[in-house]
Amino acid sequence: MRVLVIQRLISICALWGLGFFTVAAYATDVSDAYDGVVGSVVMIKTEEHKKQFSKFGIVEKKMNELGSGVLIDQKGLVLTASHIVNIADKIEVEFSSGEKTSANVISSSYLADVALIQLDSVPESAVVAKVGDSNKLRVGQEIFVVGAPYGLGYSLSVGNVSGRRVYDDLISMEFIQTDAAINSGNSGGPMFNTSGELVGIVSHIRSRSGGNEGLGFVASIDMIQDLILNQPNSWIGADIIPIKGELARALNVPHRQGLLVQRVAKGSPAEQLGLQAGILPVKIPGAADIFIGGDVIVQVGPYPIHVSKDGFLNVRQYLSNRSEPLQLTVWRGGEWVTLYGADQ
Prior knowledge:
Layout: H1 2-26, H2 31-37, E1 41-54, E2 57-71, E3 77-80, H3 82-85, E4 90-95, E5 100-109, E6 114-119, E7 130-131, E8 142-147, E9 155-168, E10 172-178, E11 190-193, E12 197-205, E13 216-220, H4 221-229, E14 238-244, H5 245-250, E15 257-264, H6 269-273, E16 280-282, E17 290-292, E18 296-300, E19 303-304, H7 309-321, E20 327-332, E21 335-340
Parallel strand pairs: 7-12
Antiparallel strand pairs: 1-2, 1-4, 2-3, 3-6, 4-5, 5-6, 8-9, 8-11, 9-10, 10-13, 11-12, 12-13, 14-15, 15-18, 16-17, 18-19, 18-20, 20-21
């Protein structure tokens, strides 16, 4: 009997050992891939002004944001998340070598949460990331993310592709779901496959705690190619919210559809146009807080705003292909106002 028990223990230990070594055999060492790409990853620090409630009423405060990005061109083009830079008054970029430079936004898609910024200078030690093909990603495939979670620069987290999420709303969007650890500061950072190819840009997480819970979402590089790289969206430097129906009626917008301006970046084309930001924060049940009292854009060039896929496509094509100065029609204080931009 004792011999039988010992034999069973030996068998269990052998099986456990076999399982252990099998799992270990499947784990991928990405240290070489990390070494090859870390020179392309940047930390992005921004400065912007936001209106907030205080005991003195509504005040404007200077806020600093932190995100990540990745260099995709030796001339200084960096991909990042739109929510990091879209209305920034000032952008500073730091490479892993410690070298710093300033940057400006040149293209942004706030719906897909991706943006392209241009660096003022590129360090000689900088590495250009190799753009991969996110269509080849398979659920279960291993990937890794590099960024600055909570300001801890150039941190690596490894995970798997958990799913692909396609949304066909005002624009067609695709996000790669991953269980790789993503936290505040990772936004805008790159996701690589194990060959070190760029396959996505970190967008957001879904979390009840505010930290990583294994539900990260990354804008696919193929979507970014279509929206930002192949046909760049013009950046105007304004945070806007599409409105229609009851909200449009509540704001007394005659057109019943439009883009409610929330914030305007200092020195941006929007500020140069004279676009006015919202001034009064309000809470709407079941929705995020918004600012009212600013302009409502009701027409861009010859195209009235229609909160639909075709409507947004018309505006996007106009902004990307126009040869004349930008023209916006806004609803401001109960009147139609036309704003004209400078010559191209």
